[in-house]
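One such shown below:

_____
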Amino acid sequence: MTKPDPRAAARCPACDGDMAGPAFAAALPGFSVLACPACGLGRTWPPVPAGKIGAYYPQQYYGSENVRFNPLFEAMTRLFQRRRARLLSRLAAPGAVLDVGCGRGFLLAYLRLMGYEPRGLELSEHAAWHARHRLGLEVASADFLSFSARPESFDMIVFWHTLEHFPEPEKCLSRAAELLKPAGLLAVAVPNFASLQARLFGRHWFHLDIPRHYTHFSERSLRALLERRRLGIARIDHFCFEQNPFGWLQSFYNALGFERDFLYSMLKARSARALRIRRHPIQALLTLALLPLLLPLSLALTLLEAALRRGGTIEVYAIKR
């Protein structure tokens, strides 16, 4: 008797379509990506059980004292977070804000300066260390679905490149809708599985990040998930200078056969590097040699994908009806 394929039970959380067929094998052996032909949503298969996913988030993933990049890119990170806070302040008046997966807390710190009441969530004490001890923010170490809060207690909830890390994002969005006040703002940024980057590079796409990313959203699938929960779309952006040019750049290197995310490791602080650069001197030299060619190309493609509404990442802002 033929054993049934467990993928046959995989249903699309956005449109309830069939996700039984693999789109492609992932770069990490043992994993593949299932895709919904109806709405374009992807799922990592098999999903890592909740009790085992922590092994893919070692302390090295966060860096010593949560410092992940070299000083130049640390400064750039703060600039991008300040810009993001300003954008959010134009979309929602000061009030209670929850950042789900707040990381080092820079966004919340800037929002606090603008008069917001910030609160953060992180899964681990280590991930929350910088926000708590360096910035003095209130950060709970808890899962969002079990996080204790009254209904309609937040004016803004933010999932900034965190929703894809949850095994059941549809439940997270339902919970967010419950916690938002009427007319509250939900801000979501995710990699775009329907982007030009994703389609061109497939398993080599930098933003795929398997198995930490359980779900791979397209604009269509994310829109469907939000609208099912009476979260009306107010704005969708396909241009992100912080994420999209580097998505092109690192994906080119991955596709050319370099060690996976080698440039990304070069830009990180030593305590956060997955690779030891000194062990790959030839790749380091070739990476630098190709940069004058690949960087301008990546910038040009970022503008093209934004014009075509096929950005490597998308930022979606929705209002609770």
The chain is about 35% helix and 20% strand. Confidence is low (pLDDT under 50) at residues 1-5. The CA atoms of residues 25 and 135 lie 41 Å apart.
